[in-house]
Structures are given as structure tokens and as C-alpha cells.
Amino acid sequence: MASALAPASFSLVRPAVAGLRFPGADPRLAIHVASRCRSAPSAGRGTRAAATMAKKSVGDLAAADLEGKRVLVRADLNVPLDDSQNITDDTRIRAAIPTIKHLINNGARVILTSHLGRPKGVTPKLSLAPLVPRLSELLGIHVQKADDAVGPEVEKLVSALPNGNFVLLENVRFYKEEEKNDPEYVNDAFGTAHRAHASTEGVTKFLKPSVAGFLLQKELFQTLKRPFAAIIGGSKVSSKIGVIESLLEKCDILLLGGGMIFTFYKAKGHSIGSSLVEDDKLELATSLLKKAKEKGVSLMLPIVVVIADKFAPDASSQVVPASAIPDAWMGLDIGPDSISAFSSALETTQTVIWNGPMGVFEFDKFAVGTKAIAKKLAELSGKGVTTIIGGGDCVAAVEKAGVADSMSHISTGGGASLELLEGKELPGVAALDEA
């Protein structure tokens, strides 16, 4: 889709090479839980699984490979903006900085591209312009922004770009060709790696080499240290079926929270009051419990929950056994004893992945369980445990709890993070050059 790049250019997608060490990258931060893993001996605290897919990364390229070269970097700068166009969470921008700095420090001429929101054609309020001040501040240089993503003016800008500088192109989704995967692009955008778009997958057919940036490497690859625990929350079992099934093949401990637990409790014949339940998933819940037992995975459900008489921030509440919720009451959070039990289980771990809140954390009254888990993970991280926050609501939760900086890694992908946990192949990763 882009005509701004000459054959001398190449594309860069977040670093994704197992076992490599990259300048400025913390090796603890990367993780790969996709399906292509080989089983390892399970005794003691050894390796549970090891990544087998190797892709080239920017760390494989020498300074001579970068100086003077035009590098198209597909980043995920899809950050939330308030009504005044102010950035309310710059996590994704900060995550892209190491790759950009590495390239410009090695004399590359960087063409940075991203999307923002879901525009239908050119949509001024979804311009990348509000990102320029924060990018400039983090990089310590003035960021030049193009008024478009393609075309003659962009070509002129790119051609005149000095070594060690970069230009930010306009929102790539202003063009329908992006999502239709018309040819051309670099990729450091894990949050969009699960989509076969022009800037994440199509471009790799035309620009060589196509490699991963540091952020993608962090998201994808690392040997899992045992014991390995996964904490899965959220409202529905149906949205996490693939994730749970995949994790039962990999983890030692699986902690479940959120509204999904009531489907499991109803499947076990317990009273759940008016709590959220998926009646068509009762058999599935039973099979997952059985599979966990067969696999030797310690699957833990909350033993007590906080219930409410209505779904509202000012609802009356009480703590009851999760298996005995009164009629007309609904579970909205995990209770104190559940927090204690989960915390004790997590004390035994070396790696923890968290995806999904423990309750309705949007309501302060029912955010206690989610905040407690966030703080526990921060504590464990300080003890050397690798803690990975798997995108989505959990990112907001650790930010709200004030412990985001304590985590080993916070994923920038929502849907991509879930698909990775499920073991699905991500088009934006599969398209990269093999190591």
C-alpha cells in the first residue's frame, strides 16, 4: 500500500528470537506460550516448555546494516485519548521507544507508522498528531510528522530524512488498503500482530529483511520457569476457553476469578444466586475441571466471594462461601479468604501470567480482589518472580493499583495477547524472516 519506500529499505518487526539478548532489553520480559513448544522434564523447578520458533530481530543486525538505511517500523501507538485529545495512558508509546532509539542511534532513517482507533477513512480526531509531544519528550528529539501515510509528499520527506532521524506517518488506517492487506511495511506492533494487515504482514513480502523489534521479542519469547502459574479472570468462560485449554498444557497452577467462576460452580451443582452464568457452557466447565485433574494442574476457584444485591457501585454487599450464594444476590468480587488462598499459591511460583480481573474492578467497592492480586504480583516481582500482565483490563488494573512499574512485563496487546496464550499463530509474527 505504501510507495514511500525504495528497495534499499527494509522492514522491522518487534524482536522475536528465542534465547537472544538484545541491548537494553531485559531477558525476563519476554515470553512465548504459543503451541509450538517442546515438553521438558517436569521434576523440580526446571523448564516446563521452551520456545522453538525463531525469527530474526533487529538485534541480529549490525550497525553497518542499519546506518543510512530506511527502516519502516510498524509500532502500536494506539493509545487512549480523552475528549481534549490528551493521552491518558502512554504505555504503548513507552514500549516502542527502545526499538526507535536503537535504530536512530545506529544511524538508521526511521519511518514510523501506526494506527489509532478504527477510522472510516480520514478522520481528523484520530490523527496521530497528539502523540508527537510525548514521542518527542521520550526520545529527546523533535519528532517530525507527515500529514499523510502515502503519496508524493511522504516520499519527499522520507528521501530528505537525515541519518539518525525519523518521521512519523499519519494514521495508516485512514486507508482501506491497510486492513485489506494491500502490499507494503516494519513491525514492532504486538497489539496488531494477530491481524494480517498490510503494515504487519503484507509488507514483509516486499521489504527485506523483515525482522522483529525489541518489544515483539519481549512479548513472544522466553523459557518458562517452573512452577508456572496463570491467573485468568473476566466475565465469561466462552471468551477464555482457548486460553484455559492451552494453559492446562503448560502451567502448574491455574487460578480462576471474575464472573466466569459461577459457571464452574453451577456445573458443580452449587447455588450461585443471580450471578452471571453461561448455561450452555456447563458441560465445558465440567470437562475443564476434569482435564485439570488429569493433567496434574492445580486449578483453584475462589472459596469465598463478595456478593451484592444489585449490579451497581453503591450496592449492599456481604461475604459468603462461593458455593452458597443466596437467591437474588450476585457475586462481584473474590473474598478475603480467596485472596489469601490465591496469594499462598502464588508464593510457590517462578513465573506468573495474569489475564482478566478478579471482579467488577470498575466499581471501587468490588475492586479489592483485583487490587490485591496486582499488589501480590508486584511483591513477587520484587522477589525475582517473572510477572507478565497479559493485556486488556489487567493493564488498567495494575495502573489503578499503582504497581505497573513493578511488573516484569506488561503486554501491549489485548486480542493478540489472548491469541498468543491460546497458542494461535499470529500473522504478523509468522511473516518475519527466520533466524
Average pLDDT figure: 76
Q: Given the helix and strand composition, which structural class is it?
A: alpha/beta
Q: Please, how many helices?
A: 14
Count of DSSP strands = 19
The CATH topology of the largest domain is given as Rossmann fold
How much strand?
A: 15-25%
Gyration radius over CA: 23 Å
| CATH C-level label of the largest domain | Alpha Beta
Protein name: Phosphoglycerate kinase
Pfam family, one: PGK
Enzyme class: transferase
Binding site for ATP: 240, 331, 362
Name the features.
six-stranded parallel beta sheet; 435 residues; 2 domains; Rossmann fold
Written overview of the protein:
The protein has 435 residues and is an alpha/beta fold. It folds into two domains: 58-220, Rossmann fold; 222-422, 3-Layer(aba) Sandwich (Rossmann fold), CATH 3.40.50.1260. Helices cover 27% and strands 16% of the residues. It contains 14 helices and 19 strands. It has helices at 63-66, 91-105, 132-139, 152-159, 176-179, 214-220, 241-247, 261-267, 282-295, 336-346, 368-382, 393-400, 415-421, 427-430, and strands spanning 10-12, 37-39, 49-51, 70-74, 109-113, 144-145, 166-168, 210-211, 228-232, 253-256, 271-272, 298-300, 304-308, 317-321, 324-325, 330-334, 351-355, 386-389, 409-410. Strands 6-7-5-4-1-8 form a six-stranded parallel sheet, covered by helices on one side. A six-stranded parallel sheet has the order 12-10-9-17-18-19, with helices on both faces. Strands 14-13-16 form a three-stranded antiparallel sheet. Helix 4 links the parallel strand 6 and strand 7. Helix 8 (261-267) packs across helix 9. It is elongated, with a radius of gyration of 23 Å.
